[in-house]
Every structure is written in C-alpha cells, then in structure tokens.
Amino acid sequence: MKALMSVAAIIGAAGILLLAGMTVGIVPSNTVRLIEGYMPVQVIAELTLFVAGFTGISYMMSAMGMAFPRFWQGILFWAFLLIYLKFRVYPPIPFSVRAMYGTISLVAIFMWVSANEEDWNKFKQPIMNVLDAKTGGTKFLRIAYLVIIPILIGGFSYNAMVPKSEEPIELRTVHPAPPASTKVHGKTYTLQTSQNPYRVNPEGKYDQEYSNSNIVEQGMGRLMKPTSNPWDKDAQGYLKYVREGGEIFYQNCHFCHGDNLNGRGLHAFAFNPIPANFTDPGTIAQLQETFIFWRVSKGGIGLPNEGFPWASVMPPWEQHLTVDEIWKVILFEYWHTGYYPRTWD
Amino acid sequence: MGRVAGKKLFSIMALCAMIGLLLLPIAVSLPSLAMGADGADAVKKDGEAKVEKGRDVYYKTEGIVVGAPAPKTVDGPRDYPRYNFESRVLLWFANQQHLYYGSFVLAVPIFCMVIEFMGVVTKDKAMAKRYDQLAYDFIKISLTAYSLTAILGGILIFTFLTLYPAFFGYLSGIFRPVMHIYALMFVAESGTLYIYYYGWDKMKEGFLKWIHLSMSVILNVIGTLLMFLANSWIGFMMSPAGVDEQGRYLGNIWHVIHTALWNPLNVHRILGNMAFGGGVVAAYAAYKFLASKTDEDRAHYDWMGYIAMALGVAFLIPLPFAGYWLMREVYAYRQQMGITLMGGLLAWLFIIQATMIGILFLSTNYYLWQALGRMRGAEKYQRYIKYLVFVLCCGYLVFITPHTIVMTPAELKAMGGQQHPVLGNYGVMSAKNGGINVIITTTILSFVWYMRGNKVSTVSWSKFGNIFMGVFFGCAYVNIIWLAIYGYYIPANVRVGLSVPQVATTLSCLFFMFALNTAMMKGAKQMGAIEWGKISVRSQYALIMLATAFTWMMGLMGYIRSSVRLFWHVNEIMRDNSPWAYTHTVGFAANMISFNVLFFWVSILFVFWLGSLGLKKAPVEAKAGVPGAAPQPAGGH
What we know:
heterodimer, A: two-stranded antiparallel sheet, B: mainly alpha, 71% helix
C-alpha cells in the first residue's frame, strides 16, 4: 500500500509541478499536449492521475506525521480544478461551462469532506476556530472576514450590475429543428423519409451499408481506403458521385468550410462564429442527410425562428446549385469526414 | 368463529365489489369499444347515404369520418376568453398542481401495497406491526391528498372550459367514447380507496389480511388504468392518431388512445410517479426527524425516510432508461420534434434536466454514505468514498455538458468556432449515455456497500465472491466507458443501439450484484447494530433535496413535453391561435416551475399537518440504538 501511495505521490507531485510550470511559462506549454481527437479522454485521464497523485501525497504526508489539514485539502483541490479548467484546456472553455463545472466540483468536494462525521469535524474545525475566536490570530481573522467578505460580495455585485460595453451573451441554437418538408427547385422533400439518390450500390439501389463501407477511416489520419478511391478513373456509382461532390465542394464550399472540412477555410475567420466544422462529432454526424440538404438549400437566410440569432452567412445554395449537386456535395462531406448520416432504422 | 366467518364473508364481498367496480367501466363501454358508438350511429343515420372516409394521420388506415374537423380558432373572446392575465400560465399552474397531487396519490397506494406486503411476509412480529403501521400512515396522508387531487382536477376542468373552450370541446369530442369510463374509473378508485382505508382495522390478521392486501392490488390497478387514460390525452396532443388530416375522428377510439408516444409515456410516468412519491414521503420523514424531540421518534422517522428513499430510488434507477426510450420514440415520430427537444430550442432545458437528474443521484449517494455512519463496522468503507465522489463527479460533468453553449461572441471567437474539441464530444448522446450509466452504476455500488456495511460474510466462498464482485464492477465501468467512446466511430443508428448493452451492463450490476451480495450476506456476522436515529442531520437535508429535485424536475419535464408542440394545441392538427402561442424564455419557465414547486410544498405541508391531527403514533417496540432490537428494513439487512 505504502509503495503504491509513494508512486501516486510522485506522479501527483510531478504533475502539479509540470502543470504549474506550463501555466506560468517556465516549462514549454506543449510539453504534454492535448491532442485534438483524443482530448476528451485525455482530460479525464489527467484528472484521474491528479486525484491519485493528491491521494498519494496526502497519504505520505500523514505517514510522515505532517498531515495536511482536511480544510485546506478541500479548498486547494477546488482551486486546482478551477486552474486546470481555465489554463490547461485549449481552446478556452467558455465561462458558463466553467461555472457549471466549478459548482459541481465544489459540491463534490463538500460531499467528500462531509461524507462522515470525523472528516466533517476536521474540515469545519478551522471555520469554527475563527467563529469562536479564542486566540489573537483567530480574532484578527474574524474581524478581517467581517470586513473583507461584505466588500467582496459588494464588489461582485457591482461588477455584475455595472453597464458594460461587451457584446451580450447569446444562446445560439446550433441545430434548429428542421421543417417537416422543404421545397427545392419546385419539388417537395419530406425530411423524415427522403433519401440521398446517389447513396447507391453498384446495382444502383439505395444502400447505406455499402456507402458506409467505402468512406475514409475516421480518426486522426482520415485515411482513404485503397479500394475506395473516388479519383480512380474507373470509379463508378457511389464513389464517382463522391468525386463529383468533391469537385462541387472545392469549387463552392471550401473557401469557408476549409479543404479539410474543419470550418477553417480562407474566409472562415471573417465570420463569428466560423463556419461549421464537419469533422466535429457534434455536427453532420448527428444529423440526417435530409437535414443537411435543407440547410444547404436554404442557407442562413432560411433558418427558422428557432435558429436565433441566425448567425449564419451561408448562401441559399438552391440559387446556385441543382438538387443533384446538393445531394452529391453532401455525399462527399460524409465520405471525407468518415461519419455516417443519422438514420432511424 | 361465527364473527370471524362473518368478517371473511364481508371482506370477500368487499373484494368482489371492488372487482365489479373495476369491470363496470369496461362493461359499460364494450359496445362503443367494439365498433365505435359514433361510427355505428352515423352509419345507421345515413343509411345508404354517402359515407365519407378519411385516412388516419398516423396509422394510415381508412375509416369513416364521424367527427367534426378540428376548429380553426381565432384570437378573441369566442375561442380564447380570458381574464386580464395570460391564460396559458393559469392553465399551467392548475395542470401542474393537479399532476403533482395525482402522481402522489397514485404512487402512495403502490408504496402501501409494497410495505403492507413486507409486513405480511416478515416473520418478526414487531417489525410486521411496524410495517403495517407505516403503510397505514401513508394511506392516511394519501386520503387527504386524494380529496385535494379531486378538487384540483375540478379546477383544471373549469380552467379549460373557461379559458380554452374550443380546444377542450374538440378534445372531449374526440375522447367522448371513453369520457364516462374515465369518470367511472374515478368512482371505482374512490370506492376502493375508502373500503381499503376504513377496512384496515377490520381486516388486520390472517386470511382477512390477505384479502385486504388484494384490495390494494385492485386499487393500484384502477389507479394505473386511470393514469393510462389521462396519458392518452397528452399522447394525442403530441402525436395524434385516429383522426384524419383535418382532425376528424374516424371512429376507432383505440387508435386515438394508442398513439405513437402512449406506451413510453405510460412507462415513464409510472416510474416517475413512484420515484416522486418516494421522494415526498422521504422528505416528510426527514422533516419529522429534524423536528423530533426524542430518540424514539428520530429512530422511527430515520427508518421511515430510509424505506421511502429506497423505494423511490428503486424506481429512479430505471427512470433515465424509460426517458431515453421516450425520446427515441419522439425522434422516430418526428425528427424535428426530437431536435427541438434535445438539440434546438429546448436543449438548455434538457441540460437543466440533466443537472437535476445528477442532483438526484448525488443526493442518494450522499444519503447512503451518511447512513453508513449509523452502522458500527461500516467504517472500512469510509476511506473509499472519495473515489466514488470522483467517479460520480466525472460522470456528472460529462452528463451535463451542453451541446449549445452559452457564450459571448468574444468567447466564441476565442474558441475558434461553435465546436469545442473537448466539450463538443461530451455534449453529444454517446458520451452522455456513458455519463449517466457511470452515475447509476456508482449508485448501485453505494447501495451494495450500504447493504453489507455492518456485516462480514461467513460463507466459505466469500473471498471469491468479493473478488468476483470487484471484477464485475470494474468490467462494468470499462464496458460502459468503452462503448461511450466507441459510439463516435459507428453509424448513428448503431450508436443508438449501443445504449442497450450499456443499460444491460448497469442493470446486470443491479440484479446480479444485489443477488450475489444477498447470498454472501446470508448468515453473515454482524459487526454491530444499525443505530436508527443516529444518522447525521445532513442526510436528512439530502432527502429534502432529493424530494425538491424530484418535484422541480417533474415540473420541468412536463413543461418541456408540452412546449415541444410549439404553436400547436394538437400537433399538426389544431393550431394554437391565442396570443400565447410562443415559447417562454428559459428564465420565465424556470421561475414558473419554481413557483409551482413552492406552492406544492406549502400545500402538501398543510396536508401533512391535517394528516397528523388524527395520526396514531407508531408503537416503537425497540429503543433506538440498542443492538439487535432496532428495526431492520426488509431485504437489505
């Protein structure tokens, strides 16, 4: 047990030093990189290591007769989490989410320090000491808190109420609900049931399983399967339509959506928000093809009321492309990102 | 003997009367159910005259048009008479209060049935008496609340008739074939409840007790059927069936009742009502515990709170899965409805809902950890609690991560787009399924610890059992998390299907580990007694938090379910043309829900007070804190 805790303590201490070093710039900030695509698991794994590390440090200090007070353990661990979320994760997490995470971690710390009477008594002892104020030091602290806490609350209140020139917070609906049907080039498409006419097998029949088996590999590399090259001159059917969709994409869409379809095209940063990142699992991977068909056809101007604040400059592509071209470009987007359109069967 | 035989006869007659009451509505309605009374009349009247046919909007079957089309309402005193106030808010209030009380009075008799059954099968006579008294106390509270439910139901109907006459007229026209069945079910419910309650003392032993217990079963069957009928109205409003595109009734009342969302709504509501009822009773016990002056009272209410919490949580655990099924059916019914709910306009309300679900499970776990404190011998588990906190917290953080993030344009710019490489992954269903399953599995683990807190297994294979249990839980966590990650690499329809093995993993932990633990703890060595009444006061606040979160979440989910129709009274059939056919802001909705919650709790406190006026105090056979004599909940100990 002691050996295990010693290892945990070493990991914890090294981790804290590394994080502190990267935060203040002594250690290069890319020493331990968070890699896009693996970040969600990396973050949880790192936090798990830190918890193990802190446990080890606490255990070792107790074993050496220098037990760290439970009160400060709780406070410092919470501070650590806030610093981690603020400085470790990049791109920065918006304040609203950090506030949610911070509140929950505070509740979790409360649950930990008050899980049993002994721990709870240990935790609240310093607070009770200050409230009882039996020594000179605690008397001073009590008076100091009496002055500082109202000032702090007043300061926060003032800061919250004072008029600011910042742009207001917006609750942008990323995926507004589509209509039941949409009319494009004079034909009505029911979004629940319509299908991409180019998602076909070599026999020319609609076949999602066939097309799914020919998309690029999902993940960091996004490698094309050797037998599924749309730019092979002999490619037919689905792969040929993917190629045609790709040509349309690079003639019309990539200026904004980027040549890797990650929303970072030439013009992307002229807009806020930048165009949709199709490689993110929260965009086209979550949607039916017909949803994309509707959004591409109608563009930002066709967003429903629910799409407030309508922050999209995408043109209504039905004015520039044919229905067939729209379906093909959608085919290409799914092929290139390695995602599968949502279906309900 | 003669007197006992008379009682038996009386009891059997009472039971038969209840069954008769239960069957009466069905017998009355047989002709109309068989062919649709309206349909038959229409055909007879018209004779050989032209019969108009329509196509069912959902079942796509043809039927004879026998109803009027849905009215095309206009804003004005004819269709939308009003006070100088928003009619929708008044209706919201009346509906919500009726629902709270309705849920409570439907849930509590189920508790009574379970507790009374536990009393009947328990061999310990003192415990049996205690269970019986507890069940009686519950039904007494329920009886007072039942009157209030009926009053609130009346207020609700008057509110509908006064403020939305055209809409209510249309709905009651559609449901006309079952309206009187609905009313007769109320009569049956009331009659059964009164016989059940007033017959308690007369039928307290032997065969008569079993008759009495059977009555509770009938009472609950009637209550459940009543709820199913009520659910058919909301199911019809969300996903209409049995009518054509103009909203004309096609003569098949079963189609009207059995809509696309009726079954998942029924399952979700039964579980929800039970969890809610457990929460309310647990909060009542917590309040009484905090106000207790004696150790005996504290022991009694501590025990009562534990029983209510355990029953409530037993139904809370499957609740998210039932909710998942409901949402899946909503998506399958109308994609845009599903997106409005979970990805669009109402997405933030779902984040609040996820937060409330998390609070429920956190409160439950916290209560169980506190409850370990009143067991001697449970100290060995205390030092591991911090790891459970961490696992719960990680699951919770993932579960509540929003897909639609609130941020300033500057933050949006700094983030480099709408999608965040970490939050974007946590914010979708695959990760959230993993999060909630981790939370539930951890709660199951806490329960297992609690069940074995003061015991040491004496079976010869206990070491193997412990290792197996540890490995099983470990594998469960790995499987849940792995499937959550794997969900990003497969098609959406397969991903949705992944929830099945995730849920199966969680439920396997629940059933297999509970069963294994029970087998291991058979004849286990007691390290110390459970000292009822010696639990921390923080645990009681956790129970109050649990109940408040239940109440708030019920209000929230009701609002979300209703709002998803947007500007429709009946989805795609009858448009809402009142001035209030818009969706409230999140802030307004939250305030309104909070007001409803507050009103409910103030009024239920009044009900509790009324109930306590004539309450017989529970006989406490054993003094709290005396090892071996303290009450032990059935099953777990």
